[in-house]
Amino acid sequence: MHTPLLQVQGLVKRYRRGWLRPRTTFELQADFSIDGPTILGVMGANGAGKTTLFELITGGNQPSAGRVLVSGQDIHRTRYEERDRVALHYHQSYQLRAFRRTRPSFMLERALSSRALVHLFDEPQFNTQDGYIGFMLDFFRKLRSEGRLVVLCLHPNEPVHLEILAEVCERFVFVQKDSERVSRLTFADDLRTLSRQAPVAAYLGDLAPT
Where is the ABC transporter domain (predicted)? Predict the structure, then answer.
């Protein structure tokens, strides 16, 4: 039986405020599966929940519901110090965020892999002057050729960012927060198809492919 490389099953992250009358201030919902190695491009406005999604996939943030399986292993049931052997989150600023520890690490499962199977790049800062973009794209392709899933999150503010996504990514997802402050994911197999969605076209503005 084939085991998908990444399964996000009924994942919900809900933030609430208030003690007597708690109200939801933000909610992220995600449910999808990635069968095998690929490079997935992620876009979405600031505050839409992209980084929260990455934190949930790498186990740095506890879900309110649902689970994340990497090659069948539940990331949130894996020992804290071994989660980077399962999924790795590359922060833009390289700041590390503390895990919310819910039980002693020794009570959790050991990582089943020696190297991360899922690599999530959270708005990497591309240097356009010294060939850094080519270096990074080659690195993404190398990871993919080694059987790994690469997730590349960009917040496009100039055409080169969309060119990067179009050149290297094989599938795309848009994270959108609605008026009820609930964020959901929209997938497409190519950037042009995704850009035809009205919210995506509005988000990209003049950068939207014609």
Answer: 31-93
